[in-house]
Amino acid sequence: MARRIRKTPEKIVQGLRTFLILVFTAGTLVTLAELLLLRHTEAFWQLVPVVMLVLSLVMLAWYGLAKSKSSLESFRVVMWAFLLSGVFGFVNHFRANMRFEQELTPGLDGLDLYWRSLQGVNPALAPGTMIFLGLLGLAFCYHHPLLLGKTRK
Where is the chain membrane-spanning (predicted)? Predict the structure, then answer.
């Protein structure tokens, strides 16, 4: 009969961290590709998520090579910036949609304006991807042994 190998909680958490960073990397690459395909690079503010996505991959490469506390802390700072950029992106997309809807239909206001703004030309909820990715990255960093002053095995 095959002997079952018992995993320690540390090994389980390490496996979950690996899974989180793989999902983060895949999501980052897909989001970056989508933004480039959509030519989300025409204005300064459109470049912000593109630059941040590339920066996160650079931070991950640094962490992968160095496995240092400073590389992980830098990655974590970028993840907090992801959260902020997602909120800013939502507001930016929503306001642009509001202006467009008000130009299209003067006098439009209230809930009808807000609803149409959510459904507008600029996908108002798309920047939520940055929030999602930022949360994945922060989950990866949560109680990481390097940030707790423990050496990695």
Answer: 20-38, 44-65, 77-94, 124-143
Q: Is 2 left (phi over 0), alpha (psi -120 to 50) or beta?
A: beta
Picking from 70, 66, 63, the residue whose alpha carbon sits closest to that of residue 25 is 63
User: Can you say whether the dihedral through the CA atoms of 63, 83, 31, 139 is positive or negative?
Assistant: positive
Strand (E) or helix (H) holding 24: helix 9-37
Domain ranges of the chain: 10-141
| DSSP at 3 | P
Q: What is the pLDDT of residues 5-60, one digit of tens each?
A: 788 988 999 999 999 999 999 999 999 999 999 999 999 999 999 999 999 999 99
pTM: 0.88
